[in-house]
Design goal:
two-stranded antiparallel sheet; globular; 16 helices; single chain
């Protein structure tokens, strides 16, 4: 079965709607991942409603904003070059999670728009607007959730199938691997070799998903049925189990991945609860099907906000419905962490976030790949050594 992206690229070249070009075609990836071919915004867009020619597929809801780009001195712009934009905030030293710098790249500008309440333009009352905080992490937080919540369970398979046991000898070659080698193999791949069913002179190399199909289905079904607190409990217990495996605090301090997960545990818990069981199951299904393809930088920007379920009135005035994340979560939302971040932002260049890409750097095989400069800091790595395990996040704050 061809990859769905290949069929979509063919439809683009044919300049016909994707739904029309896929008519009568059965695609395993499309069926497994429930990929939508049409609808979304276009479904309610009158100018596209009766459109029968030209490429068209499913379109997500999109927010639009106007911004001023900083011009170059010579007035020329290079194709593909990143633009810098003028921020709206007047104070360069605002100590909050929304930033406040005047020169922004497009992702930082988007985060500022949602934090200030200028976006989204609809569906929110005035008192509930803004206060969104976010990360331009190229999908780093989502991949972290996948690594913590999924891999340990999926790799603990006890399949007695002789073929599976034989394949395991090539999946793990070293105890120092960060992930199984088949994680970067698509659902199906073809290689020259022994004859296989329906393919003379070829054999099918099974990928991560195909080898563990039943295990994956059962695990994702369990996650999809979890409520918000159950998801937090699963995440917490997964990290705590790794903490307890160390014989002492000194041993745990040398586990860089564990220390990083502990430093972000409450933040990851909030993100996981916000996405929900069904959302996580859909995301994880894509990652186990073809990790390398579907972990390619999405979501580019991740936004989060916590609100109280009920409003309170104090002295005849209504309190804010948005939760103070510095008080509830702590970690990177605390005042001390934000002040440190503002200082570091002036001395650190922007690096691609690929530290949560399992197996290898996601940029090393690209035509324009470049290695991280020697001595450059890794974004997201913590220098704090935890001697006690962080407390579990509870979905209540200040008695509300």
């Amino acid at each position: 079965s061809l990859a769905f992206c290949t069929l979509r690229n063919i439809a683009r070249k044919l300049k016909v709607p994707l739904e029309e070009s896929m008519s009568g075609i059965t695609n395993d990836e499309m069926k497994t991942l429930n990929i939508r071919l049409c609808g979304g915004v276009n479904e309610s867009n009158n100018k596209n409603k009766n459109r029968t020619s030209g490429y068209m597929d499913w379109s997500p809801k999109t927010d639009f904003a106007t911004a001023n780009a900083l011009s170059k001195e010579d007035g020329n712009y290079d194709v593909g070059r990143r633009c810098a934009f003028v921020g709206w905030e007047n104070n360069d030293s605002i100590n909050d999670a929304g930033g406040g710098r005047r020169s922004l790249n497009v992702e930082e500008l988007a985060i500022e728009e949602y934090f200030s309440g200028r976006l989204p333009l609809e569906d929110e009352s005035e008192e509930c607007r803004g206060q969104w905080v976010g990360w331009h992490d190229e999908g780093g937080h989502v991949r972290a959730l996948f690594r913590i919540m999924c891999l340990s369970d999926l790799l603990a398979s006890t399949d007695d199938n002789p073929l599976f046991l034989k394949e395991q000898t090539t999946v793990f070659l070293s105890p120092y691997q960060s992930s199984p080698h088949d994680l970067h193999v698509g659902c199906f791949n073809i290689a020259n070799g022994e004859s296989g069913e329906g393919m003379e002179g070829h054999k099918i190399i099974r990928g991560f998903y195909e080898r563990r199909r039943q295990k994956v289905a059962a695990f994702l079904s369990k996650i999809s049925q979890m409520d918000h607190q159950a998801i937090i409990d699963l995440l917490y217990e997964s990290v705590e189990h790794r903490w307890r495996k160390h014989r002492d605090h000194q041993s745990a301090a040398r586990d860089v991945a564990l220390q990083k997960d502990m430093s972000d545990l409450r933040t990851l818990s909030m993100i996981a609860a916000g996405i929900g069981g069904k959302g996580l199951a859909s995301i994880f299904r894509c990652l186990v099907y073809d990790y390398r393809h579907y972990s390619g930088g999405l979501p580019d920007c991740l936004l989060a906000r916590a609100r109280y379920c009920n409003s309170q009135t104090v002295d005849n005035s209504q309190t804010s419905s948005v939760v103070d994340l510095g008080d509830w979560i702590g970690e990177s939302f605390s005042k001390e962490s934000i002040e440190e971040k503002n200082v570091n932002s002036h001395i650190r260049m922007l690096y691609d976030r690929d530290d949560e890409f399992l197996g290898c750097s996601k940029n090393l095989d690209g035509p324009n790949s470049s290695r991280r400069a020697q001595g450059a800091p890794r974004i997201g790595n913590t220098k704090i050594h935890y001697t006690t395990f962080p407390s579990k996040l509870e979905l209540q704050h200040s008695g509300r």
